[in-house]
């Protein structure tokens, strides 16, 4: 199912971010949203994920129980191992004990190239490895929609390239609707099949290119 | 650098630190010995040696260990109940504003009550032996409550947001986000409570005439003018407090092994 945003309005005090905004995002495609910093890209993701509620309008086609989110920072539990961090988003009571998902977790760790670090703590990993864990977590969670808020922005060029290639590989195997926001055109062009450019606030769609 | 060299260096630093600390302790003992010699009256200020002799004399009597054991039980009981309740109620208070508003005036009132008033009042209502335990609880609970509430409020909002997106259950959020976030605050409260617990328990034992107890032994040493025993009991309290603090720290460090600092 595609995501349909209808007559969306959102403001913070006097600052209007969206006003009667409409957009349809295709199912099982990677849609990239480009725009200057502070233009409302992250707000759109927060509205789609249910972290924020619209002042007016609707977002249809979103099951709030089935959303993954790759944030700008990995947001891992620092006191839990990589494996426990992955178990955290799965429906099992204790993240310290092995559950029925161990094989799936092992497979996902292999896919993101972290097969040997499952028992390490986040502080023992590099920045790129931590972001890989957050990618693994997003794909491991049984979601229909994956939201990405500039997850590669803090990484160096080589690592970013590698991670984007890996991301595409994983996505091909685990397809779902992806909304990827960034202010970096190169990243968007590399990953996305549908590229939307936002204006500054209140948001308007300046261009839309479908590959 | 080789691992063995790093370890050797670490050991050298540890040894250096330990020798320095021993040196400082010896300096103060020497100062005490000099002061005792200058005063030249064991009734006013016994020497370190007389104090130590007193400890050995006390240790020859089985009642010495009974007194320490009972006082220890009171300290542990009071601290354990306050830390446990502080954790549970502080967690609820940190998560629920209404509960916090209801509890806060009570905690603030307990905090501002003079310890002596509390001891005398409680002594009117319950048996002497239980007074130190209840008073220790009343003094330590606000420390635990305040720290735990603060811990809940300083929980990383980014982690909570992540948990919300991934539909993590409330119980899992408490177990895997809130409790680990509270832990450093709770540990700091525990260390303060142990220090406070000793002082308050012994004071309450004296004022409530709780028997058997370290506090009452201190009191008897005072009224019978056995100043060296007064010092000996004080030394015993200091040693017990130090040992408990170190043992607690050891277990805390062990439980945090591998985790983030």
Coarse shape of chain A: globular
Query: What is the fourth-level CATH superfamily of the domain at 1-66 and 144-154 and 175-211 in chain A?
Result: P-loop containing nucleotide triphosphate hydrolases
Hey, roughly how much beta strand do the residues of chain A contain? 25-35%
Q: Which radius of gyration of chain A do the C-alpha atoms yield?
A: 17 Å
Outline the low-pLDDT stretches of chain B: none
* Quantity of strands of chain B, as a count: 0
What is the arithmetic mean of pLDDT of chain B?
A: 89
- Helical proportion of chain A, percent range: 25-40%
Topology pattern of chain A, helix = H, strand = E:
EEEHEEHHHEHEHEE
CATH level 1 name of chain B = Mainly Alpha
Quick overview of this protein structure:
Chain A is 30% helix and 27% strand. Chain A is of the alpha/beta class and 211 residues long. In chain A, α5 (157-173) links the parallel β6 (145-149) and β7 (177-182).
Structural write-up:
The complex is a heterodimer of chains A (211) and B (261). Chain A has helices at 41-49, 82-88, 102-111, 127-140, 157-173, 185-191, and strands at residues 3-12, 15-25, 30-34, 56-60, 67-70, 145-149, 177-182, 194-198, 205-210. With 211 residues, chain A is an alpha/beta fold. Chain A starts with a strand and ends with a strand. The mean pLDDT of chain A is 88. Chain B has a single domain, classed as MetI-like (MetI-like fold, Orthogonal Bundle). In chain B, helix 3 (62-95) packs antiparallel against helix 4. Chain A binds chain B through residues 49-51, 64-65, 67-69, 71, 73, 75, 77-80, 88-89, 93, 95, 121-123, 137, 141, and chain B through 158-159, 161-168, 171-172, 176-177, 180, 258-260.
């Amino acid at each position: 199912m595609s995501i349909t945003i209808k007559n969306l309005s959102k403001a913070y005090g006097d600052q209007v971010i969206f006003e009667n905004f409409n957009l349809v995002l295709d199912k099982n495609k990677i849609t990239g949203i480009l725009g200057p910093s502070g233009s409302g890209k992250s707000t759109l993701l927060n509205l789609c994920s249910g972290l924020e509620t619209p002042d007016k309008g609707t977002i249809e086609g979103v099951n709030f129980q089935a959303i993954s989110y790759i944030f700008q920072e990995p947001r891992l539990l620092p006191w839990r191992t990589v494996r426990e961090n992955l178990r955290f988003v799965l429906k099992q009571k204790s993240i310290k004990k092995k559950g029925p998902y161990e094989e799936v977790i092992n497979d996902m760790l292999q896919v993101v190239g972290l097969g040997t670090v499952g028992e390490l703590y986040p502080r023992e990993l590099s920045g790129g490895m931590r972001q890989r864990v957050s990618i693994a977590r997003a794909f491991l969670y049984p979601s229909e929609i994956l939201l990405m808020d500039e997850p590669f922005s803090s990484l160096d060029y080589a690592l970013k390239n590698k991670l984007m290639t890996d991301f595409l590989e994983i996505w091909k195997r685990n397809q779902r609707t992806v909304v990827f926001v960034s202010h970096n055109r190169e990243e968007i062009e590399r990953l996305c099949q549908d590229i939307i450019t936002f204006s500054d606030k209140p948001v308007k769609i300046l261009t839309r290119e479908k590959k | 650098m080789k691992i063995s060299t790093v370890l050797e260096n670490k050991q050298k630093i540890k040894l250096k630190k330990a020798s320095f600390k021993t040196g400082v302790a010896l300096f103060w003992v020497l100062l005490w010995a000099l002061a005792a010699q200058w005063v030249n009256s064991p009734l006013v200020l016994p020497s370190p040696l007389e104090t130590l002799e007193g400890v050995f004399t006390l240790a020859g009597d089985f009642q010495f260990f009974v007194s320490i054991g009972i006082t220890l039980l009171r300290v542990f009981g009071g601290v354990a109940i306050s830390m446990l309740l502080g954790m549970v109620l502080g967690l609820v208070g940190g998560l629920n504003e209404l509960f916090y508003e209801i509890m806060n005036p009570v905690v603030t009132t307990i905090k501002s009550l003079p310890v002596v008033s509390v001891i005398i009042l409680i002594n009117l209502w319950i048996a002497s032996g239980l007074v130190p335990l209840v008073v220790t609880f009343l003094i330590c609970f606000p420390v635990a409550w305040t720290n735990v509430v603060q811990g809940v409020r300083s929980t990383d909002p980014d982690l909570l947001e992540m948990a919300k997106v991934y539909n993590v259950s409330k119980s899992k959020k408490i177990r895997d986000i809130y409790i680990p976030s509270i832990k450093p605050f709770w540990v700091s409260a525990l260390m303060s409570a142990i220090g406070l617990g000793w002082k308050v328990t012994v004071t309450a034992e004296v004022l409530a005439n709780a028997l058997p107890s370290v506090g009452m032994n201190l009191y008897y040493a005072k009224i019978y003018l056995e100043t060296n025993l007064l010092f000996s009991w004080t030394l015993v309290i200091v040693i017990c407090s130090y040992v408990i603090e170190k043992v607690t720290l050891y277990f805390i460090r062990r439980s945090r092994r591998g985790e983030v600092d």
